[in-house]
Amino acid sequence: xxxxxxxxxxxxxxxxxxxxxxxxxxxxxxxxxxxxxxxxxxxxxxxxxxxxxxxxxxxxxxxxxxxxxxxxxxxxxxxxxxxxxxxxxxxxxxxxxxxxxxxxxxxxxxxxxxxxxxxxxxxxxxxxxxxxxxxxxxxxxxxxxxxxxxxxxxxxxxxxxxxxxxxxxxxxxxxxxxxxxxxxxxxxxxxxxxxxxxxxxxxxxxxxxxxxxxxxxxxxxxxxxxxxxxxxxxxxxxxxxxxxxxxxxxxxxxxxxxxxxxxxxxxxxxxxxxxxxxxxxxxxxxxxxxxxxxxxxxxxxxxxxxxxxxxxxxxxxxxxxxxxxxx
Length: 327
What we know:
Distance between the termini: 31 Å
Helix content: 25-40%
Structural class: alpha/beta
Radius of gyration: 21 Å
CATH topology of the largest domain: Rossmann fold
Largest sheet: 8 strands, mixed
Strand content: 15-25%
Number of helices: 11
């Protein structure tokens, strides 16, 4: 087991009150496995990603839980130790490539800084010119791996001179250049058009297989999860409500929320009437009691409104719903 998140609770302290962003998130990720994390906006996907790397803003607090990475609880490490893990062992590809490259520096400066300060072999070199040369060669090599045209020329350019797809390839190359054990792809293709999105996902798949990396793929798109993941986890209102083998979750969904997401998904193989999920994601300053989905669920029972459902194993999927047991 490479990553194990257990009963993670995260709160944000705002002028409106306490936002209960994560309410007992639990999942496991094995070495070389790709886990897709899906759910509506506001379900807690990105907060989960930032919590794993301990990059939450100042008004956020991890109240309780464990984040065990390769046998070490990250919540018990000092900030100095966490800096050694970020980038080197856990890398993140963020949602909008336009906001994660510094507009005043050329790509070369930003890429080489990542390598010079994080790559152990390059850091160990005392000759700065030699370190620069090796870092530049490695940057060119990685840009070629992500199929960037004219990588040497791209390194001499500013971010504003690149398209969105090219910027995302730069971020991909940076993330994979240190060969981390875990890649967190947080909506990494959302800002791209469909064609470029497909190309970036294919590159990610190739790099993941080549290095046998683990990937936490966060997305709204269940189609992306179906094509790229071995496991799927569905989040709602700060909790994983269903998790299991991707085929079991997407072909035979158990939780009413998962079923609702799939009914709202357009199909290309046959004509189906799209059915939206009524209502909206609950206000996490004042979350509902019991199951957070009970206000939108067509199968809600009285117990759903008073008690949080426990996890049960149902035909290979782990699901939090009173339709499948629990008292």
